[in-house]
Amino acid sequence: MSGRSHAWPEGFGCLDGELAVAGQPVSHWIAQAGGTPLFLYDRALIERRIAQLRAALPSRVALHYAIKANPMPELVAWMADKVDGFDVASGGELTLAREAGMAGSHVSIAGPGKTERDLTIAIEADALINLESEREAERAAAIGIARGKPVRVAIRVNPDFELKGSGMRMGGGAKPFGVDAARVPALIARLQAAPFLFEGLHLYAGSQALDAGAIATMQRQTLDYAASLKVPLRHLNIGGGFGVPYAPGDTPLDLAAVGEALAQALDAVPLLGTQIVVELGRYLVAEAGVYLTRIIDRKRSHDSIFLVVDGGLHHQLAASGNFGQVIRRNYPIAVASAYDRAPTETVSVVGCLCTPLDRLGDKVALPEAAEGDVIAVFLAGAYGRSASPSRFLGHPEPFELLV
Ligand SMILES: Cc1ncc(COP(=O)(O)O)c(C=O)c1O
Known about the structure:
Blueprint: E1 13-15, E2 18-21, E3 24-25, H1 26-33, E4 38-41, H2 43-56, E5 61-66, H3 73-79, E6 85-88, H4 91-99, E7 107-109, H5 116-125, E8 128-131, H6 134-147, E9 151-158, E10 168-169, E11 179-180, H7 184-190, E12 196-203, E13 206-207, H8 212-228, E14 235-237, H9 255-268, E15 275-280, H10 282-285, E16 289-301, E17 304-309, E18 333-335, E19 345-350, E20 359-366, E21 374-378, E22 399-402
Parallel strand pairs: 4-22, 5-6, 5-15, 6-7, 7-8, 8-9, 9-11, 9-12, 12-14, 14-15, 17-19
Antiparallel strand pairs: 1-2, 2-3, 4-16, 10-13, 16-17, 16-21, 18-21, 19-20
The structure holds pyridoxal-5'-phosphate.
């Protein structure tokens, strides 16, 4: 058997035959964390990604981190002075953002169904509320008036366009997100009075797009839409949607092309006086993380070999294909303890849950591995631990380490 099932992900190394992260073999980090399963995040890779974004995007564009992608408190606190703001999806995430040291005024909150608690936390923190409906505006106003506080708002718009080719679409047609574009002018008129401070718009059309052209089109449509309203906007969040290559054959996003197209779009539609914001989750953190899980059994069933590991979908649901994938595709996977060896067999890596859904690698080419060896599942920096049903079946929580 020749060739690997995946190219080695960028930024990781090999030391004494073992996968190395941040200059140390993973066995070192596993010992430091206390064992497996372990989510390991390399801050140098996140820093490199932020630098690439700063270099590629026009300098007037502010960079926000959507902390839903990875809310590990230590990571969020470390990010606080590296990005220009955080985007949160709940009062809980907003509290986390504040505890991480981010000023409330640099946080925006989006999400349908904000509760009284979410709105109250946001208003008390002076955060920007991305309104998802006219009724939400009324509820926020009542809280602001009762507390004698101004309510900073932007309207989340459900645009008439979508982000083509995105893994998840949040705009275009009937959607639970935002206010339909046609009703936005009327709502802006209602937001001109106290307690509101109307600041601008939020357009989030989709996630996980790898096509720079599709992102550029979406960004240009967003600027055109904002300009068409002919109202002063202090703030325009043009969304994100920058995707990462999860499977062989996925072409990484051409970030330079996205940046150049956005610069041209801003030349054509300058929106002077408007702060332009992009909000990114996975593009900042996904590729900086690896999930490490130890083989506890190697078994044969009929003509198939199964490597049964101590982790699984209860920690890393996304890699099992049950979070946001229509057709299951393997995430890049390797034997961490034999990282320099070529594949010699085809095996399936399954988690320890008794459900056929718990499959981290389906018929992947790997070097021979035995009980005690460590499997690495890459692309684990986003939507891993916090997006997985960790209480299902009562197994322990994973370890987590930012290095
Ligand atoms: C409003 C909003 N912002 C940001 C994100 C983050 O997306 P991603 O991690 O793909 O960048 C999402 C994802 O669902 C979202 O709905």
